[in-house]
Write a structure and sequence with these properties.
Blueprint: H1 9-21, E1 25-26, E2 38-45, H2 49-61, E3 67-71, H3 82-93, E4 97-102, H4 112-127, E5 133-136, E6 154-155, H5 159-162, E7 166-169, H6 184-187, E8 192-196, H7 209-231, H8 233-238, H9 241-244
Parallel strand pairs: 1-2, 2-3, 2-8, 3-4, 4-5, 5-6, 7-8
Helix pairs in contact: 2-3
Bound molecules: zinc ion.
Length: 249
């Protein structure tokens, strides 16, 4: 049975192996060459750091070094928390790079340069590494194909990474613009920037987007209740089961 096109952990492994079997080799934003079968693995971590670590572990087993772009200003996770910093440490120890996922909608055009510098600096404090790449979260059309660097850093939508080479994204848990192996540019053997979001892949089998997100939301709710119990005696005493057992994964 082929798992090649399934959105699951097995499907993700199969996708990478299939790209390898078509002659692709892992590259990065610095070294990618347009007319080579270079593969840049980019992940935008929009929702779940735990899912990112699951994907990162599979990649490590396949000797793949990827770029993980993380948000600083999000309600979905907290990089400064114990869990957040542990996830960052895991991604780095598995051989991956961390970049800044910047939500430009939070800033005016005039503020964007300084904001990117500030956010990248904060992220560098967390990672202890230079942050030299930015990707935009849900970018406005004006940012797609923007040639200029931002805060002295390259970004993933510059033409050399976005339009000069093949580009494919799994936005909304689907291949809306076609499967990567079906792209004309890939058939011609051009370099490929493959953007995936870990939340769509971190499951044992294929699952629709809504049920996947409901499962994620239930896990976050459970974690929040355990934190309430840990921090507040009345809640802890009302729900003793929250402190009796280890937190489920
Ligand atoms: Zn995003």
């Amino acid at each position: 049975m082929s798992y090649q096109r399934e959105f699951s952990l097995i499907g993700y492994k199969s996708l990478i192996e299939d790209l390898f079997s078509h002659g692709y080799t892992i590259s990065n934003f610095r070294e990618v060459a347009t007319e080579s079968k270079h593969l840049i693995m980019r992940h935008d971590v929009d929702m779940c750091l735990d899912a990112a670590v699951e994907i990162a572990t599979i990649e490590n087993q396949l000797d793949v070094a990827a770029h993980y772009f993380v948000l600083l200003r999000t309600e979905m996770y907290n990089l400064f928390s114990k869990r957040g910093m542990a996830a960052i440490e895991s991604l780095l120890s598995l051989g991956h790079q961390i970049g800044l996922h910047l939500d430009a909608s939070l800033y005016s055009n005039d503020e964007l340069e300084d904001a990117a510098e500030w956010e990248a600096g904060c992220l560098q404090c967390i990672t202890g590494r230079e942050v030299d790449m930015i990707s935009f979260h849900r970018p406005a059309k004006s940012l797609l194909g923007r040639a200029d660097m931002l805060a002295g850093r390259h970004h993933a939508y510059q033409p050399k990474y976005f339009t000069d080479i093949a580009y494919c994204s799994d936005s909304r848990g689907r291949w809306d613009h076609g499967h990567p192996l079906d792209l004309q540019a890939v058939k011609k053997g051009q370099a490929l920037q493959l953007l995936t979001h870990p939340i769509w892949w971190a499951s044992k089998s294929d699952e629709n987007a809504v049920s996947r997100l409901n499962r994620f939301a239930a896990g976050r709710h459970e974690h929040l209740r355990r934190e309430l119990a840990r921090n507040c005696a009345p809640y802890r005493e009302a729900y003793t089961e929250l402190t009796d057992t280890d937190e489920p994964k």
